[in-house]
Design a protein that fits this description.
- GO terms for molecular function: hydrolase activity.
- Keywords: Hydrolase.
- Belongs to the RutC family.
- This is Rid family detoxifying hydrolase.
- The structure is a single chain.
- This protein is α+β, with helices and mostly antiparallel strands.
- The chain has a single domain, classed as 60s Ribosomal Protein L30, Chain: A (2-Layer Sandwich), CATH 3.30.1330.
- It contains two helices and six strands, in the order βββαβαββ.
- Strands 1-2-3-6-4-5 form a six-stranded mixed β-sheet, covered by helices on one side.
- A hairpin with a 2-residue loop joins strand 2 and strand 3.
- Helix 1 runs parallel beside helix 2.
- The longest helix has 18 residues.
């Protein structure tokens, strides 16, 4: 059974998609940007502040679906500039401290002002 997840504490989707889809015991979270849920605007001028907000938004979606960061099994990271890789990892290491999920990191053209986008898959 497929269930659409919408979290009130995460920014509203900016297009025709759900925050996440829950199928059986697996949650597929859409890519999240550093968007402030209250303003709907991208915030943060540096990779660290944007990464923190991205993971705050992902955390809200995970929580809404009954999951947590310990349940994350796969992370895909899109960086506007791969030179931000080390600084991104500094924040990432505070989110995932053990049993690291599988991860892919690529450089990508993102929305104006966005330095990072992250999507995750979580499983129970």
């Amino acid at each position: 059974m497929k269930k659409c997840i919408v979290a009130n504490d995460a920014p509203k989707p900016v297009g025709p998609y759900s925050h996440a889809i829950l199928i059986n015991n697996t949650l597929f979270v859409s890519g999240q940007l550093a968007i402030n849920p209250q303003t709907g605007k991208i915030e943060g001028d540096d990779i660290k502040s944007q990464t923190e907000l991205v993971f705050k938004n992902i955390g809200a979606i995970l929580k809404e679906a009954g999951f947590c960061f310990d349940d994350v099994v796969k992370v895909t990271v899109y960086l506007a500039n791969l030179s931000d890789f080390a600084k991104f990892n500094e924040v990432y290491a505070t989110i995932f401290t053990q049993n690291y999920p599988a991860r892919t990191t690529v450089e990508a053209k993102l929305l104006p002002g966005a330095l990072v986008e992250v999507d995750v898959i979580a499983a129970k």
